[in-house]
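Appendix B, example 12.
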Amino acid sequence: MKRFILGLIGFFAVGATAAAQVADTAKPAPASHALRTIAPFELPTSVRRPWRAAAQATSINIGINLFDRWALDAYYARVTGASIRKNLKHQFLWDNDNFSTNLFWHPYTGGLYFNAARANGHSFWQAVPFAVGGSYMWEVFCETQPPSINDIIATPVGGIAFGEITHRVSHLFLDDSHRGWSRFGREMLAGIISPMDFFNRLLNGDVGRYRPRPGDATPTIPFSQINLSVATRFIVDVDKNRSGLNMAFSAGIVYGEVFADKDTHIPYDFFTAKVDATIIGNQPFLSNASIVGMLWGREWETPSEQTWLAGIFQHYDYYHARPVVSGGAIPYEFAETASFGGGMLFRIPIKNRRATLFGHVFMNGILLGASESDYYFVDRRNYNMGNGYSMKFAVAVAKKRWSVEWNAKLYQIFTSRGYGSADIEINGLPDNADADYVNAQGNKGHTLLGIVGIE
């Protein structure tokens, strides 16, 4: 079983609201401000070290392979020269790993490759080839299963999103002007969020190095919103079975000011992210993760003081649930793993009401998505994969102390490559079939998912 279990893994526990809120509550400092502002994570720029970054990405793959081979006794980790030669010649196939492995852990691991480069002085775009290379290395050289189409998409593309937000968020806690327990706590928290950044700070000697902050500088934090909540919930499946008590912790962040009076924005100057984790109940620990990151944007203001921004955005959504009763149906399982598209964000003042109208519209093409299947049950997989599109809309009215938002999302995933006849799709593979070589996206068809919410 292909499991991405990492001794070094720490899950980032900061994200943003599910609706990708765009309110920018922070106001820019007036021009006459006498002090220069400095973010706590503004540290000296690292020297670019491509060979060290490549060596670390390679070490990640070797470490995972050795762990899977010796600790898990996994058959796919028994790599030989013959298996590598076979993979080099074999076409890429759709694999049959479980939902969380393919749609969450692969993107997370891609983020480790990506951050091996970011932590070694590479820019956003310079780090992308390391995520691609790390993924290809794993698929061909580090397992005996044939290389996977879905993995070579999910790992680097999802890794871009996971890597950049964990890289940026981990640096929010770093401040070399602190000492003692405060410094220790900051370094540990940053390391949990981005292990590769922490590892490279250890190599560079930055973990214990003291650097006083300039005397004319005041710290600033580059986010406009943080949300933390704990809530109880229940889930009802298609057969009207209702779950017992489930308690979830939710954490979210809106990073950066989307309307920052800039001509252009660099990648992930603005992003929203959110995670939901089950604290009590029979649902998966990670039940939801959502990311919207701006890759490029241009804004303008109208004479009536309306502010608009058009941009290109990356999207990642992950929804996971288990049956609420033994033997019952899975309530939902859905992922928008590799997705890009255009978006429009707006801020419109309502002067007579002393309020502001915020909102966004996104139209995306989904390169890789997944949803639970009615018929496809092969090996560890019970879901379809494919491509499609998504549309997202939100509008909010905000005053000084409150805001109300209505949001809606629509996804459609098309599965075009099925396996064999309808009877095989319903009853499973023949006894002599090898699940590693099935090469199917799932049962042919399409899935339509709509989500509506009020906050």
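The longest strand covers residues 333-350. Helices lie at 50-71, 81-89, 99-118, 124-141, 149-172, 180-193, 195-204, 422-427.
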